[in-house]
Every structure is written in structure tokens, then in C-alpha cells.
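Dear colleagues,

As part of the handover before I leave the project, I'm documenting each prediction I ran so the next person doesn't have to rerun anything. This entry is a single chain, and its sequence is reproduced below.
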Amino acid sequence: MNSKKKILNKDKLVKLLKEQKNKNKKIVLCHGVFDLVHLGHINHFKKAKELGDILIVSVTKDNFIKKGYGRPYFNHYQRIKYLENLEIIDYVYLCNSNSASESIKLIKPDFYVKGSEYKNKLDNTGRIYYEKSLVKKHKGKIFFTNEEIFSSSNILNKNFPIFNKDQSEFIDNLKKSFSFADILNILHKLKKLKILIIGECIIDRYNFGTAVGKSAKYPYLTFQSKYKNDYLGGSLAIARNLSSYVKNISVICSFNKKDMNYFSNKIESKNVKLINFNIKNNFDTMIKERFVDEASGYKIFGNYSSSKIQNDFFYKKLENYLNIKCSKFDLVIVSDYSHGLLNINSCKIICKKARFLGINCQLNSFNLGYHTVNNYKNYNLLVLNESELRQEFRDNSSEIEVLALKILKKNNIENIIVTKGSEGAILVTNENKQFKCPAFAKKIIDKVGAGDAILSLASVLKKIGSANENLVLFLSSIMSAKIIENYGNKETIQFEEMKRFLEYTLK
């Protein structure tokens, strides 16, 4: 390999391009994921290099790759290092966007080279149209090679299995009932639903820094803060999870009016209507702040701030809305954090009026010991984690399936999903039919939002009725897995990403 440094950052690449273009050198650009470099790629690079003097390969960064579970197989550092060692490639650039657009704008290539499959079929995302326009704008040409096509995804799926035995068996059984087209058709049906989400609006704030240690004079821990990130929590996280699946979403919440634009921008969807019942100008939106040691990723402690609503006028206004509007929605989803948004009478109205009702009653440090699911009766779906279910019965020894059936009968619920962490999730019906799904998270960074993710997709899938219990568990578990692999609700799996995941997984 040439001793020159091939992997360039943005500044070094700009400097290099200026020098080379001053020498009238022709610049050729190839772009892709290159998760597994094969003969097709090598021939592609050779053909590209024939078009000019300098061949630059830009590589998609990990966080922009939406090819589904376990992808990319190799992280972007491994992928660019491999390409660096190919003699035919002159320079490698790590692209910080979900397409080649950033690279094209930066490099302004004389030739942008893609494989023949993009000429014939284009790509599922349609990004090639924008890329072509950018190349033309910068007076370059797009060129399609005609080399033999191989699929890195197919090769990886066959030779580098990403699922363990339990996961593979579950997916294989699912394939017997549903094809990719079947599941896609089911997901498209969700768009027609009109749903109402009810629950506290929460800002999950993560304060990253260093745990310095115990104070020299006093018995407390000192923490050196470096930066903060805010993520949507509570009812707005549920809305964001579903915003690309459902076209008509309303959210009953309560927050300071000055935060309206902030929340609307964070949801990033016009499908979501926020219904703010807050009547107090001094009401503070609930903030749950966690202090995280940046080096280890461990949460050290938390600081929660909230304003209890507990206002008779507020509850009267809320109850009037629920009495009039609740039955007009196809589906109502309640995530009850017991922070004061819902009183007992509101719970009764929801259960009476909702045409289909999905509920998650979460335990947290604010409500431990007095929060209960027993405020809700006669509904369709309950989502709890194992500890929440055991807390309901003060029972730490009975089989979880026994407790699940017990609460179904007690509160006249049709279905319950109990999440069990690394053991996956179970769905039990009031007829005592039991279904189990393995966990799909590759790594657990943060469990915040896991229950809301399960509730989100499971509720809408149960409502339309086309998905059986195994498919409900599978799709909602995949959404949950995406969320817990990041802090807060930083990432969710939107419709197009879910579509691509299913396409690759069900091949």
C-alpha cells in the first residue's frame, strides 16, 4: 500500500481537492456502505478509476445506515480501514449523511459512479434522483458501471448469521405465516387509523460527564458536567414512534406553552396534533434528568422536577373532552406515569368511551408503592414489565404467566404483554393462550422508553386485527430494541427503516 494517508477528514479533503483540480486532475467519486467488500465492488472501483485520475470512495457512517437489525456488520472505522488498504482507491472519506449528498457537495466530482442496479431499478429510498441533480449542478456526470452484481446483504445473511438460535427459530416460524409483502400490507393499514394518545409529556435530559469522586469534606459525590442532550419522553415519545406509521395522531398532554415549538420540532411530523390542557402559566414541563458517566455509560443519579396539576378546573375540562371526543378515535393509547395528568374519574371515562384501548402503567421512583393498574377496567391491551406485574400482586415467586392471566381476569382485559428484559416478552390472552418472543436488542444502553415502544406498535397492530400475536410481539420488540440501544428515546425505527429491516430479514 502507498504510504500516503488515504483516510481524510473534511478539511484535508478540501485542501487536497483544491490542489488536484488546479492540476486539472479528474476526480471520480464512489459512495456506499461497503459492509462486505466483494468482487463486484473491486470491479466497480476498477471501472470507476478508468474515468479519471483520482478515485475517492466515501463511506456511510454507522448511524445513517438503516438496513435493519445487526447492520452494518462492520463499523465504519473497520470499513474505511479496509478500503484504505485497496491500492486502486486513492482516498477514503467518512460521509456524515444518509446518502452521498454531503460527499457530492463537498467533492464536486467530475464523475459520480454507481452500479447498474441503480440505473435499472433505482434504490428504494429514491435518493439517487437528488444525487443525480447535485452531480449535474456541479457540472459533473453520473456513470453507471455494468459489472456483475453481488449483494453484500445476501452474503452476510447466509454466511454471517446475526440472529441467535431462538431468534432464528422465531423468525423462521413467522415466515410460515407471513411474507414480506403480507407484513408490508399490514403496516400500510395502520396509516388509516385515527388515534388518541394520553399521557404526561416528559423531557428526558441526559447530562454526560465525569464522576470525579467523593467530596473531600462532605459525604456526597461530585460530578463534572460536559454536555447535555434532551429527548422526548412520555406521551410525545409514543407519538414520535408512531408518526411515520399513522397519519392522524392527537396527543393529550400538559406542558408549559413556551415549549410548544420545541416539542413540535422534536416530533418532526405534521401527523401529530398536540392538545395542551395546561391552564397554569407557571406550570413546568416535567424534566427527568440523568447524570451519566461518559466513560462507562453508567447512570450515577437522577434529578426529577415536576409540577403536579391537581386542579379541579383542569380535570373538569379534561373529562368533558374525553366524554365528547374519546369515542371518535379508532384507538386510544394511555401511558400512565402517575404524575398528575389523569385522575380516577378520567380513567373511568377513557375505559368506558374508548373503542379500543391500550395501556401502560409504569412504575417509577415517584409513584412506587401507590401506583396501580386497577384504575382501568374492561379494555383491550395492557403492557407491563415483569417487576411492574409482580408489584401489582406483591408476588415475587409465582410464574409470570400465572400472574398475567390473573390480572387479565381481575380487570377484564383481553391481552397482556409482559416484557422480561433479556428474556424477551410474552403475550397472554384472557383465554390463556400464550406466545413468547425472544429479545432482539444487540446491546442495552438504556431501558427508558422500552415499554412505550412495545405499547406503541402493539396497540395499533392489535387494533387492525390482521397481525397474529407472534407478529405483534416481533414488530413491537424490534421497535423496542432500537430504542434501548440508545440513550433516552434518541432513535426510533420509522416506517421506511422497518420496511428495509423486514426486506433484509425475511429474504
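The longest strand covers residues 201-214. Residues 419 and 425 are 4 Å apart (CA to CA).

All the best with the project,
I.
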